[in-house]
Amino acid sequence: MQTTFTIGTRGPGLTMFTGEVARWLEGAGNGLLTLLVRHTSCSLLIQENADPDVRVDLTEFFHRLVPPADDYSMSYLTHVLEGPDDMPAHLKAALLPVSLQIPVQGGRMRLGTWQGIYLFEHRTAPHRREVAAHFAPD
Fold first, then answer.
1. Spatial separation of the C-alpha atoms in residues 61 and 67, rounded to whole Å
2. SS3 sequence of the chain
3. N or C: less crowded end of the chain, CB within 10 Å?
């Protein structure tokens, strides 16, 4: 069973799409779900879904860890033709997962109580991102 989720982002930050995945898996039985983001400047995360401050803090942390290319500390970068956010977005995607595997039991993901699935956008402009999903039944 395979599909592609299209996720619209509003610039840097985490966009939860747990509900879309859960609806797709309804009645799927037991198995393993694999998600792969089909881009090189965003990531996938399983992260807390209760307090939105967690998403704000993660976004700010990675912005400080890897600032835009026009920041003096990033003057060593050579890939700058696509804007000051592009190469830093690739660096963040290299540090974070671009794929996830989640056990599924009875058509439901075995996520913890406060866990959600997020696309982490690293570019400054809104994008439409694709996440390929594959469910392999037991």
1. 10
2. CEEEEEEECCCCEEEECHHHHHHHHCCCCCEEEEEEECCCCEEEEEEECCCHHHHHHHHHHHHHHCCCCCCHHHCCCCCCCCCCCHHHHHHHHHHCCCEEEEEEECCEECCCCCEEEEEEECCCCCCEEEEEEEEEEC
3. C
Per-residue pLDDT in tens (0 to 9) along the chain, 138 residues? 999 999 999 999 999 999 999 999 999 999 999 999 999 999 999 999 999 999 999 999 999 999 999 999 999 999 998 999 999 999 999 999 999 999 999 999 999 999 999 999 999 999 999 999 999 999
Which backbone phi and psi does 130 adopt, to 5 degrees? -110, 135
What one-letter code names the amino acid at 111?
L
C-alpha Rg value of the chain to the nearest Å: 16
